[in-house]
TrEMBL record:
Keywords: Membrane, Repeat, Transmembrane, Transmembrane helix. The chain crosses the membrane at residues 701-732, 852-875, 887-907, 919-937, 958-976, 982-1004, 1087-1109. This is Ion transport domain-containing protein. It is found in: Membrane.
Length: 1220
């Protein structure tokens, strides 16, 4: 084995010696052969090694050894045809290893073989490990019914008896993804198309970060960061910010990589975690010197405790080959065939302390001197290159740990308690000084102004002095406050969080400043406004406790509020110009700019978000969420920004170029998200059943034949109801209660041959039972029949990042009463659905969960409709009273269920509910049948009026369910949108009709309430009814009335104002019979009113009304209105029908959604956008190059862009002529 020693001479020259020292002593572990693989258990209690040359496995107990050489307690010889590729061990000594297509598991305690309760046919195992809970996780290839191999993740519980482990989880990795590794923290690391994905098995949450993937890649993570090492570069990805905050750190830079050892999570990247030859680390002088130091410190420690053998001396030049275990923070080295355990973190900490002391001596000396210089001194300090590098990398470490402020939350919480216990509120405290080590902070406040000065101790002429390093002055917009009072006491308290970080509490809130030693600059990293303009000690204490409980008692600092930006322009500029701060606080800042109508600031933030996205399309798409998160505010104040954003980001992608793939024709605008890992855990019972089915074939062939015959007979019997059977299996397959694993069992280490062959249903019947085989056969042939030819498609990204997500913190009770909403629910704007992105977003929601819940709602309403209509319509001689009563009770129950959702909708947003006509219609459709049914049951009276209206509203409500389909939905959308547009015209028309009805009522109403026959009242109904005279035999007519028709309530409709209104409505529709009973010659006033009504309303206003209808219909006769209507339906389903935890499922509500688009349809859509002038809508678009790439792929020439270019060329030529 190759041993490496590194020495550092006085001239900082690195000398590397390699010595070969091989010992073939047969008494040593592995018979002295080289160790190939070494693995540590999840919690660092046991270790196993494997030697390829010796084909042996050795176990080492490390739990009771603090440091030094380990002793082996287990040995096993591997007698397989193939060498071991992967090995792992649990804390309770369960050993598992992979060799080719075999997985073997042994209990080291009793040397017994452990079996799995599900053994699936496979091609190859890829990975195996134990997690921290002792569960066994492995990945292998499993073949499906189409003979296609998929990678399957299996999770087994090891806490079982009889040496048999029970499967508790199955997960399917998408076909386009490759497995990188499985972490003992239940995390999968996958790669696809230069993307790396972290997927948590327990929470099923994922993080994706994009980088050009190479072969040498290593990953580790904690709750805040994901760390990657690709070759010699380290990338640190923030989980909270969802961007890489350090994108390229070269570990070959010894000083830089040395300082990163302050971050234990990086050990697995900077130190090997397996016995492989690492060219990057082996050629790194700094790493060799660090490991030499740690090794010698270990030997010195053992020698002092008399635990070191004589043949191992601290001055030995032989250094073991190490691996690192992040859980225990120990390294394990191999030397002379034995495993050594070393306290790496403790050794490195000691080395860092010594190095820091050395650096402090090089930078500052004489720290105990009390001499100081004036505040205006600004002499520069000249550091050595090494110290400069050390300071620079200290900033990297602080940046990672300080930026999110989580490490200081305990200190901040304690500071609130200290500030609230101030004994006296001084009115002269305008200057405060804090000193820690070699840094002095001076804080001055002068009425709405905060001045900070940083001093460093240096030695000048053998005397210690404070030298001014930098200064910062912040002025706050506090004009509304009394500046004199502010001057008396602006500061309430302060606290040093570290040497370079300070917390300051003032009358306007909490500040956190950071001093950057690299560029000598003080930055305001945090400002939270609180109104603490209080002069009473007890009131201040009470106020601080209130703010602490409300905002600062959590694990992270609260986001800056509105007044934080309003009071400090510098804070606004810092957040806007700092990339990470913009991402963390950008939503609040943009909201502030919108509310304050600061258009220039809005444009700056908008542009910076687009620029950051353009800088790194792969990783910076999260910046777009700043814009999308403020869409509700933009819709209220500046809706044109929504259209602008929609047009500028339509047809974008978060990759460097567009890719064309061939997909089915029906996948246009089909939406999906990455990674699409499928949870098949529900199919564990099905998998066990199929395994049992095949075992029956192997062990009890006769019973197997009998079972198949019975299944065939049952299949023939259920053929009449086969649709129900197929739908049932479809639902089970859709929700993964069954799977299509192609199971093969081992029998005497030989794969069993097919069960049944050459049957009419094909080879699919070889793998499953008769029922499943029948379903898969019908399903596959149906899909084959329905499948269409493929067409080229391009994948786009929906730019509404985090638009559909719900807040993660919620209360179950209040979520049922008044649920929290997502941005999708809050704002349903037509500007958002004018591009394909909005439609693709709706398609994703509809296909994921919307259509299934909508069908369930529809079916339950059909049950209500059927029960009530049957009881109300069928004559009683055909239905018994008991059945009728049961139907009415069912109607009441179903009605209350539907009504409860309407009540929840009213509670959620009463104003929005009232403004939606369909909601009012819905509640009438539910309340009337409920009331009618209860009334019928209680009184046993069949009220036909109530029944008729109840049936009418129920029938129309049934029709409204068709509005979700585009063919019907467009017309429903037109009906509502047209009413909304002409509602004020209808109000004007109604007022005019009411006025005419009033006029006719006064003119034509009888003078007396008594309607007895009187000659002197022309409006008396007895005087306007038809009269009949007698015709004598000689043909003469008797002048006296012979017969008078008795008047009814409708003879004179103007006797009551209500019927007068109805008469005007009839006149409006063309029925003037209500006015035909009077003589027009004797009633000129009546004629004038009729003419005015006809000309003003019937002729003019009604024709105007028809014209407005045409205009409104033309405006809303498009798909946008239909999509808005469908979005409202989906929003209602989300809020009222999904459970609170379902609204947090990442599979249903992902942060980023993608969609396919048909190539030919893209061509047409882009041409349409160009013709409409909407393709290049942004005057400073940062994604123009991306869109140009799409135009090139579509072979489209943008004449508008060419014309603009020609115009610019002409201007340049013209300017040149003028200059000449």
């Amino acid at each position: 084995m190759s041993d490496i020693s590194v020495k550092i001479n006085d001239n900082d020259k690195f000398i590397i010696n390699k010595n070969m020292n091989i010992n073939n002593n047969a008494d040593k572990p592995h018979n002295g052969k080289p160790i190939t693989i070494m693995r540590v258990s999840p919690n660092g209690k046991y270790l196993v090694t494997y030697s390829k040359d010796d084909e042996s496995i050795v176990g080492w107990n490390i739990a009771n050894v603090e440091e030094g050489q380990l002793k082996s307690d287990y040995s096993r010889t591997h007698k397989g045809y193939h060498e071991i590729e992967e090995i792992c061990v649990s804390d309770d000594k369960k050993l598992a290893y992979i060799h080719d297509i075999y997985l073997e598991i042994i209990d080291i305690n009793n040397n017994q073989i452990i079996e799995l309760n599900a053994k699936i046919s496979h091609l190859k195992y890829h990975y195996c490990t134990f997690n921290l809970k002792g569960e066994f996780i492995f990945c292998n290839d499993v073949k499906n019914r189409h003979r296609i191999y998929h990678k399957i993740i299996w999770v087994y519980s090891t806490q079982t008896k009889n040496n048999k482990w029970i499967c508790k989880g199955i997960y399917k990795i998408p076909k386009d993804f490759e497995l990188i590794s499985i972490s003992k923290y239940d995390k999968l690391y996958l790669s696809s198309n230069n993307n790396i994905y972290e997927w948590n098995i327990l929470t099923e949450k994922s993080h994706d970060f994009r980088w050009r993937i190479k072969k040498d890649i290593r990953i580790s993570s904690n709750e805040k960061f994901i760390y990657l090492r690709i070759k010699n570069k380290i990338i640190i990805y923030s989980i909270e910010l969802k961007i890489p905050i350090i994108s390229s750190l070269d570990i070959n830079n010894g000083i830089k990589s040395y300082n990163l050892l302050n971050i234990p999570e990086l050990y697995t990247l900077l130190l090997p975690d397996e016995l492989i030859h690492d060219d990057v680390l082996s050629s790194n002088r700094m790493w060799n010197s660090i490991m030499e130091y740690c090794w010698k410190e270990c030997l010195n420690h053992l020698e002092k405790n008399y635990q070191l053998q004589k043949k191992y001396q601290p001055d030995s030049s032989t250094i073991p080959q190490f691996i690192f275990d992040i859980k225990t923070k120990y390294t394990f080295g191999i030397l002379d065939g034995y495993v050594w355990k070393i306290k790496l973190e403790e050794r490195i900490s000691k080395m860092n302390e010594n190095n820091n002391k050395l650096n402090n001596e090089m930078i500052v000396k004489g720290l105990d001197s009390e001499d100081s210089s004036s505040d205006d001194e600004a002499d520069k300090i000249i550091d050595s290159d090494m110290c400069t590098s050390n300071v620079e990398n200290k900033e990297i470490y602080k940046y990672l740990n300080i930026y999110l402020f989580n490490p200081y939350m305990n200190t901040i919480n304690a500071s609130f308690q200290e500030f609230s216990e101030i004994n006296e509120l001084s009115t002269k405290n305008t200057k405060q000084v804090l000193i820690q080590n070699s840094t002095k902070w001076v804080i001055k406040s002068t009425g709405g102004e905060l001045k900070l000065l940083i001093f460093k101790k240096i030695i000048i002429n053998k005397r210690n002095k404070w030298k001014l390093i930098c200064m910062r002055i912040d002025k706050f917009n506090v004009q509304e406050y009394d500046l004199y009072e502010f001057h008396k006491r602006f500061l309430h308290g302060n606290k040093l969080l570290s040497e370079n970080d300070i917390l300051i509490l003032t009358k306007i809130g909490l500040f956190i400043y950071h001093f950057n030693e690299n560029n000598n600059f003080i930055s305001l990293n945090y400002f939270y406004y609180m109104n603490l303009n209080i002069y009473n000690k007890y009131e201040l204490m009470k106020n601080l406790q209130y703010h602490y409980k409300k905002s600062f008692s959590k694990s992270t600092l609260p986001l800056p509020n509105y007044n934080s930006f309003k009071l400090s322009d510098k804070w606004v500029l810092y957040v806007k110009d700092n990339r990470e701060s913009l991402l963390k606080y950008g939503v609040e800042l943009l909201s502030f700019a919108i509310k304050e109508h600061r258009l220039e600031l809005m444009d700056d933030i908008y542009r910076k978000c687009i620029i950051h996205f353009k800088e790194d399309l792969r990783n910076n798409k999260i910046f777009l969420s700043i814009i999308t998160s403020t869409i509700p505010l933009l819709n209220e104040y500046y809706p044109e920004y929504i259209l602008r954003y929609s047009l500028e980001t339509t047809m974008v992608i978060d990759s460097l170029s567009y890719t064309i793939k061939y997909q089915d024709n029906n996948l246009h605008l089909y939406s999906f998200h990455y990674p699409q890992i499928i949870n098949l855990t529900q199919s564990i019972l099905w998998t066990k059943y199929i395994i049992l089915y095949h075992k029956l074939y192997i062990k009890h062939y006769t019973l197997f034949i009998i079972l198949n015959v019975i299944q065939c007979l049952l299949l023939l019997l259920i053929l009449p109801i086969s649709p129900i059977f197929l739908v049932t299996f479809y639902i089970l397959s859709k929700y993964h209660f069954i799977n299509d694993f192609n199971i093969r069992l081992y029998k005497n280490n030989i794969v069993d041959i097919a069960l049944l062959t050459d049957n009419i249903f094909g080879t699919i019947f070889n793998e499953y039972d008769i029922f499943a085989s029948f379903y898969f056969y019908i399903n596959d042939n149906f899909l084959k029949y329905m499948s269409k030819s493929t067409t080229p498609t391009i994948t786009f990204m929906i730019p509404y990042i985090k638009f559909v997500n719900y807040p993660q913190n919620y209360n179950w009770f209040w979520e049922f009463i008044r649920p929290q909403s997502s941005l999708f629910v809050k704002i349903i704007s037509e500007n958002k659905y004018k591009t394909w992105d909005g439609e693709a977003l709706i398609n994703f929601k509809w296909n994921t969960y919307g259509k299934y819940y909508y069908v369930m709602i529809w079916m339950s309403f059909i049950a209500l409709l059927g029960c009530f209509n049957v009881s109300a319509t069928i004559p009683q001689q055909y239905i018994s009273k008991d059945v009728q009563k049961q139907l009415l009770i069912t109607s009441i129950i179903l009605g209350f269920i539907h009504l409860s959702f309407e009540v929840r909708q009213i509670i959620y947003n009463p104003i929005k509910w009232i403004c939606n006509f369909w909601n009012i219609f819905d509640i009438i459709a539910y309340v009337l049948p409920i009331f009618t049914s209860i009334y019928w049951i209680q009184t046993d009276v069949r009220n036909i009026q109530l029944l008729s209206f109840s049936c009418l509203f129920l029938d129309i409500k049934f029709l409204l369910f068709f509005r979700v389909f585009e063919s019907f939905g467009i017309y429903f959308a037109i009906i509502i949108s047209v009413v909304k547009q002409i509602v004020y015209f209808l109000v004007v028309l109604l007022i005019i009709i009411i006025s005419f009805a009033h006029a006719f009522y006064i003119l034509l109403s009888p003078t007396e309430i008594d309607f007895s026959f009187k000659e002197n009242d022309p409006n008396n109904p007895w005087n306007i009814v038809p009269t009949y005279k007698e015709v004598l035999d000689n043909g003469a007519i008797n002048s006296n009335s012979y017969i008078i028709q008795q008047p009814d309530d409708n003879t004179n409709m103007f006797t009551d104002y209500r019927t007068s209104l109805f008469a005007m409505y009839l006149f409006l529709t063309g029925d003037s019979s209500a006015l035909s009973n009077w003589s027009y010659i004797n009633n000129p006033s009546l004629v004038i009113l009729i003419v005015l009504f006809s000309l003003l309303i019937v002729v003019y206003l009604m024709n105007l009304f028809i014209g407005l209808l045409n205009m409104a219909i033309a405006k809303d006769n498009n798909r946008v209105s239909y999509l808005i209507q469908k979005a409202e339906i989906l929003a209602e389903i989300e809020l009222l029908y999904l459970l609170p935890n379902q609204r947090r499922w990442k599979a249903w509500f992902p942060e980023t959604i993608y969609y396919y688009a048909n190539f030919d349809k893209i061509h047409k859509e882009v041409k349409k956008l160009i013709n409409d002038g909407q393709w290049d809508a942004d005057e400073f678009s940062e994604i123009r190059e991306m869109k140009q790439d799409l135009l090139n792929k579509l072979n489209i020439r943008n004449d508008e862009t060419d014309q603009q270019l020609l115009k610019e060329i002409r201007e340049i030529l013209l300017n040149n002529k003028k200059n000449k």
